[in-house]
Write a structure and sequence with these properties.
The chain is mainly α. The protein has one domain: MetI-like fold (Orthogonal Bundle), CATH 1.10.3720. The protein is 82% helix and 0% strand. It is built from 13 helices and no strands. The C terminus is likely disordered.
Length: 260
């Protein structure tokens, strides 16, 4: 019983949780969402550029995109954050002031854009090439056909993967604390860690973990919903044809010949 009580006090001390709850809500949750959403938006913009460069028929555009993707996907996230946050600290102070907050967002944006670029590239290349050829036959230029027809279809196909990437960014936002954020800029993990150190109890970290679950678990179910919805929609839009009778009905010449 004593061991069980010690475990409960270590991980589920409701007094310690209640003390840190206002700061988690007002500071930690807000900054986690700001960092994650900002990195995702910037990552989507840069990722789309990288994806279009990666599928370009021009070689000098494809190679930089390939190198960029391999670089930021191959490095550990924490290493990229430290290299950006410490390597450009002086430049950041001249532009943004003493806060490393913007550098953390930039580092996460570079990481996410490499993954999002591959997601966009896969979605665009999954669109039937006949779509582009049909647009060209109608007199559309390559850029206009991609912008109005191919890219929207490609984005729709990869929405579940994009939500998954956002979930990964939310979790990776906890690594920004290595840059030494100001008190008003600390995210969920750093707020929970500081409270755990002060109280000598891990309950604040457990509560911070619950906040991450509140964000990520519903998004995970949203991914599953989108994926199932899109699969069901495609099946309804193009039902499979089976049997000789259906094939014959699709061939009017053969049907007429059989009837005569």
């Amino acid at each position: 019983m004593d061991q069980l009580d010690n475990l409960l006090k270590t991980f589920f001390d409701f007094q310690a949780m209640g003390d840190v709850l206002p700061q988690l809500l007002q500071v930690g949750l807000k900054n986690t969402l700001v960092i994650s959403v900002s990195a995702t938006v910037i990552g989507c913009v840069v990722g789309m550029v990288v994806a279009l460069m990666g599928i370009s028929p021009v070689g000098w555009l494809r190679w930089p995109a390939r190198i960029y993707t391999d670089l930021f996907r191959g490095l550990p996230a924490i290493l990229t954050i430290l290299l950006i946050g410490q390597g450009f600290a002086r430049l950041s102070q001249q532009i943004f002031g003493p806060s490393p907050y913007p550098l953390g967002i930039i580092a996460l944006s570079l990481i996410s854009s490499a993954y999002i670029g591959e997601i966009f590239r896969a979605g665009i290349q999954a669109v039937d090439r006949g779509q582009l050829e049909a647009c060209r036959a109608l007199g559309m230029g390559y850029g206009r056909a991609m912008r109005l027809v191919v890219i929207p279809q490609g984005i729709r196909r990869v929405l579940p993967a994009l939500v998954n990437q956002f979930i990964a960014i939310v979790k990776d936002s906890s690594l920004v604390y290595f840059l030494g954020l100001l008190v008003s800029e600390r995210e969920l993990f750093r707020v929970g860690q500081d409270a755990a150190v002060l109280s000598g109890n891990l309950s604040p970290l457990v509560l911070a973990g619950l906040f991450y679950l509140v964000i990520t678990v519903p998004l995970t179910h949203l991914v599953n919903y989108f994926d199932q919805r899109f699969r069901t929609g495609r099946r309804k839009a193009a039902p499979p044809v089976s049997g000789l009778r259906e094939v014959a009905e699709l061939d009017p010449v053969r049907t007429v010949a059989e009837n005569t």
